[in-house]
Amino acid sequence: MNVPLLDLHAQHNQLREELHSAVLRVMESQQFILGPEVQALEENLARYTQTAHAIGCASGSDALLLALMALGVEAGDEVITTPYSFFATASSIARLGARPAFVDIEPHTFNIDPAQVEQAITPRTRAIMPVHLFGQCADMNALVDIGTRHSLPIIEDAAQAIGAEDYERRAGSMGTIGCFSFYPTKNLGGAGDGGMIVTGDAEIAKRLRLLRVHGSASKYHHQMLGINSRLDELQAAVLRVKLPYLEQWSAAREENARRYKRLFAEAELVDKVALPHVRSDVRHIFNQYVVRVPERDKLIEHLKQSDIGTEIYYPVPLHLQECFRYLGYSEGNFPAAEQAARESLALPVYAELKATQQQYVVDVIRSFYH
Predict the structure, then answer these.
(1) How far apart are CA 370 and CA 362, in angstroms?
(2) Are domains 8-244 and 246-369 of this chain identical in fold?
(3) pTM exceeding 0.85
(4) For the chain, what percent of residues have pLDDT higher than 90?
(5) Contact at 8 Å (CB) between 150 and 121?
(6) Which of 40, 164, 180, 284 has the most CB within a 10 Å radius?
(7) What confidence category does residue 370 fall into, taking pLDDT thresholds of 50, 70 and 90?
(8) pLDDT tens digit sequence for 40-95
(9) Rounded to a whole number, what is the largest CA-CA distance in the chain?
(10) In this structure, which long-range contacts are made by residues 332-335, counting pairs with CB atoms below 8 Å and at least 24 apart in sequence?
């Protein structure tokens, strides 16, 4: 049996006619940049994320960069964030000449540890950027409290967490700005790169709309130094087709996670495979289903031989990346993140995954240990 980590064909086959019609609609209109498709998607996603404003951009990476620019982060500033995330979390900070100030993660959730955030605040700190990793929100009550007491804005890196909730509040709605990615592997994925920024602050939203078009409110007149980062009409049209299915797909991922929990328990593997920890009063939408095993690399090879797709998120923590050597961090600075990088392993969890495929995955893992 073949079990891929993700099967985009299965999703596409269900939506083929709707998607083809949406793409044709844009082609017939010959309007490709910041047109009615983008505007409609922005309005729909503002409602979905429980925010007042949504601003489309070219990628999730650009969403983070634009958010920092809108808050005035510049060279010499510091932004507190996690060392255990996708590269763009830290690179967006460094690209502006600011310093990523890393704080270790909670071992069970993989998210930034609020208990360590406050001690990392310095006079140069300008923002806090938590990541809702793998589809589960960071502890936003604690982080918002810290941000409020120190007058620090919070940028939610919610690239993997659209639809996730923390005490019934949607990811992206709890901080000053929320950032999303529509990379094809996301729960809401486009046909290429795309991103969205959400905020409840009308003035910040106005700045973001300027910044994404070279800082220009009218053609050839520039009020700010911005960048070119626009969500195109084709991507917006594709995402508008998919958005009504998002809740259904995320619920299917949640059900697959519950099934894995039952299957691993029945196989008597819970003492060997650390399953994802779901915080109370949250909704985990399982963009990834990440387990932890000390024998990670050997298990990956065993799964590969049985045609089961896996992925490592992430093999090298950000503070140990070669390009961040200048920050002065070294191995041992963030032990929880470093251990997660050695032990974490993503298993298939996509919405169309069959129960028989999940049983096969668990059976193959059981054969590794017995």
Answers:
(1) 12
(2) no
(3) yes
(4) 99
(5) yes
(6) 180
(7) confident
(8) 999 999 999 999 999 999 999 999 999 999 999 999 999 999 999 999 999 999 99
(9) 69
(10) 333/102, 334/83, 334/84, 334/102, 334/103, 334/104, 334/105, 335/104
CATH 3.40.50.1240 fits 8-244, yes or no: no
The domain locations on the chain are 8-244, 246-369
